[in-house]
Design a protein that fits this description.
This protein is mainly β. 3% of the residues lie in helices and 62% in strands.
């Protein structure tokens, strides 16, 4: 079976998850899945950032965490699941800035792993910076 890869693709202003598979065992190229994008839009209207994925298989289902931001909530990670990596169900907010006390206007690059029975989530944090006329996200 050829390897499969989840990547971020751009559709208009949205960054959405897409799937590709290796063209062959030598990884000479990739074939984009015709079902792309796998999620047609961020799952809620207040989501203003939605990209970067952490994917694993657990209890017979695929699990996916997507990093981003929500208006009025800041950095957030969203949970999705699927029996097949082509059709994802939104399972809500996995964790956000308020619930975790981790700062940041935007969170990126989630990495989730479990050791024994303890899970850990790593995110890259983009802080808010003051700018004349208001706040903006920045690195």
């Amino acid at each position: 079976m050829a390897s499969r890869y989840l990547y971020t693709g751009v559709l208009g202003d949205a960054q959405l998850p897409r799937l590709a598979r290796a063209a062959d065992d030598g990884l000479s190229g990739f074939v984009k899945d015709p079902a792309n994008p796998l999620v047609l839009a961020p799952p809620a209207a207040d989501i203003t950032g939605f990209s970067d994925y952490s994917v694993w298989r657990e209890d017979g289902r695929w699990r996916q965490l997507v990093a981003g931001t929500r208006r009025e909530h800041g950095g957030s990670v969203f949970a999705l699941s699927s029996p097949d990596p082509r059709a994802w169900d939104h399972n809500g907010v996995f964790v956000d800035r308020a619930g975790s006390k981790v700062p940041g206007a935007v969170w990126e690059c989630p990495g989730y792993f479990a050791v024994e029975d303890t899970g850990a989530l790593l995110v890259s944090v983009i802080h808010e910076r003051r700018r004349r006329g208001g706040l903006r996200s920045g690195r």
